[in-house]
Amino acid sequence: MKKALLSSLLLTLSFFSFAQESGKIHAGIYHGGIIGQVGIGTNFEKKNFGELRFSASDIVNYPFNIEGYFNRNYIQSDWYNIHAGLMLGYSFYEDIRFGLPIGMTFKPIKEHRQFGILLEAMPNYFLGNPNLRASIGIRYNFSN
What we know:
The chain is mainly beta. Helices cover 15% and strands 60% of the residues. The chain has one domain: Porin, CATH 2.40.160.20. The model has no long low-confidence stretch (mean pLDDT 84).
């Protein structure tokens, strides 16, 4: 438990130093199945961006999860970005998880490109089993 908390703290500190360098941060709310997530990340308009996501479940006594996403935008336009990357996470069930997220951020409002809708699929592995998670959510880029 102490190792997990220390690792989470170090990951968060390095993440925020990277976010300051990128000039913008974004926040998001995502839903996939029974697990909701809130996230904070670096500018999703950059070629490479990262995000920390935390579980936000409405299930009583659901274990807390933290996941780090490291993505690369492969296709970028005014209307959408398509990205792929790597997810590394930890659950307080004391299992480590990893996955390969593939997603699209759709920016539907021409005058307000900071707002995006995320559609994401991720083959992942945790609790000794491979599975596929699909997520949908909203995200917003904030300026410094």
